[in-house]
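Human: I would love a firmer grasp of how sequence relates to backbone shape in proteins. Could you go through the record with me and say what the backbone is doing? Here is the record:
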Amino acid sequence: MSVINVKTLDEFNKYLISNTYVIAVFSASFCKPCKDIYPFIEELSASNTNITFLKIDIEDGWEISDNYNISSIPYFKFYRNNKEINSYCGADKKLLIEALSQLISL
């Protein structure tokens, strides 16, 4: 499954409601760490087809980032059955893998 670009809060909420596992990736086109980690996110998306990966550009999807008070990027939120399980800021692959493992093991 590929990473899905989301731009509105309604669209974001629909994905949260209709998918068991969701990882929301908040980023921006001007963010170098976001660009650096994105190929790894695409790899994770391809190898974890049971998880829906959403990409929210904080400029295009400002409604979503404002609603969740995202002030630093890249920022990751992990959801299971529409409940936030974990979140963190930073382009740390190890943390991303640990949070993903925690998400699907609960």
About this structure: The domain at 4-105 is CATH 3.40.30.10 (Glutaredoxin). The chain has a mean pLDDT of 95. The beta strands are 4-5, 21-27, 51-57, 75-80, 83-89.
